[in-house]
Amino acid sequence: DAMVIQNPRYQVTQFGKPVTLSCSQTLNHNVMYWYQQKSSQAPKLLFHYYDKDFNNEADTPDNFQSRRPNTSFCFLDIRSPGLGDAAMYLCATSRDRPGWQFQETQYFGPGTRLLVL
Amino acid sequence: QQQVKQSPQSLIVQKGGISIINCAYENTAFDYFPWYQQFPGKGPALLIAIRPDVSEKKEGRFTISFNKSAKQFSLHIMDSQPGDSATYFCAALSGNTGKLIFGQGTTLQVKP
Fold first, then answer.
1. What is the DSSP code (8-state) at residue B95?
2. In angstroms, rounded to a whole number, what is the distance separating the alpha carbons of residues A95 and B101?
3. Using CA atoms, how far apart are residues A52 and A65, in angstroms rounded to an integer?
4. In this complex, is the C-beta atom of A81 within 8 Å of any C-beta atom belonging to chain B?
5. A4 contacts in B (CB within 8 Å)?
6. In terms of CA atoms, which chain B residue is nearest residue A104?
7. What is the pLDDT of residues A24-75, one digit of tens each?
8. Distances A87 to A81, A111, B47 between C-alpha atoms, Å
9. A33 and A106 in contact (C-beta within 8 Å)?
10. Is residue A29 within 8 Å of residue A49, measured between CB atoms?
């Protein structure tokens, strides 16, 4: 059973054309994360939501934004994609913040591969 | 101090052999250490995880060995199979920041 679902799996967009990636979860987890992963690199955290509380990483470009309309869904908006934004975008969830026994385990979705032409 | 250093970058093992991947950290605030397995074009999948109050954890063919004093931990894959060929990431999570810090990844190839 899919727990973290990402759509679409592949997305092609044009340089500068806004694009939205979506993530949904059936785990009822409080925390949702967005990571960017480029080829042969480790995932890089962009931001995360603890419930409705948005937490942006200091080095995340302003071009990237996120929305979480409810517990189950989270969106990644790239306002003006550049060629350097081509990557795999990973959504992850965890039940809670660290401090609770293994509730901080992060579960990843299959990712959306973004291609910018 | 937030880094997790992983080695080797790539590893080739014969079928049936033991694969060993090592990680080291400096930040003593890290208190949770998961390993993720990632196949090409897929998201990372949690493989096994350990807390620093335990020196070893075994799940099937996968074992984490943890050395708190040396700030090192390693993944051992016993009886390695071609289906284990993937990229493996160690990670460390800080209870202070809530962030998961990944190692650089190890690409494992198990030859038949």
1. T
2. 18
3. 14
4. no
5. 43
6. B98
7. 999 999 999 999 999 989 999 999 998 999 989 889 999 999 999 999 999 9
8. 11, 10, 23
9. yes
10. no
